[in-house]
Amino acid sequence: KQEVTQIPAALSVPEGENLVLNCSFTDSAIYNLQWFRQDPGKGLTSLLLIQSSQREQTSGRLNASLDKSSGRSTLYIAASQPGDSATYLCAVAGAGGTSYGKLTFGQGTILTVHP
Amino acid sequence: DTEVTQTPKHLVMGMTNKKSLKCEQHMGHRAMYWYKQKAKKPPELMFVYSYEKLSINESVPSRFSPECPNSSLLNLHLHALQPEDSALYLCASSQGLSYGYTFGSGTRLTVV
Fold it and tell me: Residues B35, B41: contact at Cβ < 8 Å?
């Protein structure tokens, strides 16, 4: 069964800092990995999608990397802003076994960026 | 249209009521999903529909009944729910297994 772990569980930083969120997964049989943002009580907003054959994706101040063989991904946020405060979720799309066809989420990292 | 639309946004229902949640997408996606999210927890998969057929049921109690009338619409029928079923119910869609997911904004359900 696929397990996804995110570290740290919570992070509080001053505005302007660069930061890294970590995600690890146990089963490398995946189609892709997706990073989401969730504001309190809201739905999920997709930030970046990395296919299993790719190493990284970039969108604005966000950069995500994927090392499928080691089961790791990182989300890098440059020059953080208070508006970045949210919960960040990592999710992998299973390509085999009991995880086939399922999106499995990590527990999330709660990010607070203070002015 | 690049959105998944869920209605209603909020729902309060009694334990003897019958209600339905609705999800709609017009992106031509052929896979649609229901997730349940409790407070401070990640979303948990409930059901997967692929080409309008139920392909995954994660052992969800029968008081939750999904329906996919057509490729754009997904319903979740609720009956005789318990207070512990109170949660945020999220709908999502994708072009297929190897594609990214698009989520709706959810329905906040409270069972009293």
Answer: no
Three-state DSSP at A82 gives helix
pLDDT tens digits for range A18-39? 999 999 999 999 999 999 999 9
Q: Is A26 on the interface with B (CB under 8 A)?
A: no
The distance in angstroms from the start CA to the end CA of chain B is 36
Q: List phi, psi (to 5°) of B83.
A: -55, -30
Tens-of-pLDDT digits for all 112 residues of chain B? 779 999 999 999 999 999 999 999 999 999 999 999 999 999 999 999 999 999 999 999 999 999 999 999 999 999 999 999 999 999 999 998 789 999 999 999 999 9
Distance CA(A9)–CA(A93), nearest Å, equals 21
Cα distances from A108 to residues A105, B70, B85, in angstroms, run 8, 33, 22
Which backbone phi and psi does B84 adopt, to 5 degrees?
A: -70, -10
Q: What distance in Å separates the CA atoms of residue A76 and residue A90, rounded to the nearest whole number?
A: 13
**Could you give the CA distance from residue A73 to residue B23 in angstroms, rounded to a whole number?**
31
Interface of B with A (CB under 8 A): 6, 33, 41-43, 45, 48, 50, 55-56, 88, 90, 92, 97-106, 108
Residue B7: CB atoms within 10 A of its CB come to 13
Residues A49 and A64: their CA atoms lie apart, in Å, by 8
